[in-house]
Amino acid sequence: MSDTTLATPLAVATDAAAHDLSEVRDWIALLKPRVISLVVLTGVVGLLVAPGSLHPSLAVAAVLCIALGAGAAGALNMWYDRDIDARMNRTAKRPIPAGRIPPGAALGYGVTLAVASVLIMGLATNPVAAGVLALSIGFYVFVYTMWLKRRTPQNIVIGGAAGAFPPVIGWAAVTGDITLAPMVLFAIIFLWTPPHFWSLSLFAHADYERVGVPMLPVTHGARQTRRQVLLYTLLLVPLTFAPWALGFAGPVYGAAAGLLGAGFLRHAWAVWTDDQDPAGRSRTGDRPARRAFRYSLSYLALLFVALAVDRMILG
């Protein structure tokens, strides 16, 4: 048998394996894995700082349900937004607009994961955690994606509540109730969302304008958006000291909140004072906004890590 004869089936098998792997990547991409990572982190911290404990296997199940619920919301968001995603540079290569996953399959995928995550959460923990998880999925899909996103520049402000639920879910999974502490964590993420997304929208505004999404830079201009980034950061940073002031976090968290908050304020100020033309457009290619967006991701992650570390060190 010739080498060519042997190589042909091997090449076919290799191509098939590569195709299968690519398809798996597309189904994972539908879940918005980068978003899930931050959602899971804040959910885990809510679980860790809650009074009481869960059996490790139930805790793992709760975290998995938070991840699946967030992924389901992401998949349903991509299914609904497939028309505008196809026309935006930032999203045109997503699996649905690129034609690699049919819209109907993505819809079924998202609905199945959403229902499964809520049912498993209820069985593994309690109805309160399952109810908040269902609320978070529904809020992101129906309130933010379908109602607010294409209608109002306040889409990020109101819709930001959807991403603020994970620490409440983690807390409720342990305790079966919702008290002031998890609502403070909810409020921190809620106020973090506008400066985070509006920093992104400053350098991605052309995409939003092209598809008619009323993001703040499109409806009110870049200067007003920069002002709002600074104002929301000024509101956010003092609030991050609330866990320490209320006594459910200690000096480790307090020091981290101060250092990280100073960094966020510096970036927000740089966004506000960016070199601009008379219309408020950046002459620097929106470099401060890009840096603020990247910092905001690290900021929230490190803030919640500091809360978990503080609890583990000081109890």
Chain-wise SSE layout:
Blueprint: H1 3-29, H2 33-49, H3 56-80, H4 82-85, H5 103-124, H6 127-148, H7 155-159, H8 166-175, H9 180-211, H10 216-239, H11 242-245, H12 251-272, H13 287-314
Task: Tell me what the structure shows.
77% of the residues lie in helices and 0% in strands. It is mainly alpha-helical. The protein has two domains: 30-177, UbiA prenyltransferase (Tetracycline Repressor, domain 2), CATH 1.10.357.140; 179-315. Helix 3 packs parallel to helix 6. The longest helix has 32 residues, at 180-211. The radius of gyration is 22 Å and the shape is globular. It starts with a helix and ends with a helix.
Task: Name the features.
single chain, 315 residues, Tetracycline Repressor, domain 2, 2 domains, 77% helix
Q: Kindly provide the radius of gyration, computed on alpha-carbon positions and rounded to a whole number of angstroms.
A: 22 Å
Number of helices: 13
**Mean pLDDT, as a whole number?**
91
Number-wise, the strands total 0
Uncertain spans: none
Order of helices and strands: HHHHHHHHHHHHH
First-to-last CA distance? 70 Å
The name of the CATH superfamily of the largest domain reads: UbiA prenyltransferase
Strand content: under 5%
Helix percentage: over 70%
Instruction: Give the biggest beta sheet.
Output: none
Number of domain modules? 2
Oligomer: single chain
Structural class: mainly alpha
CATH class of the largest domain: Mainly Alpha
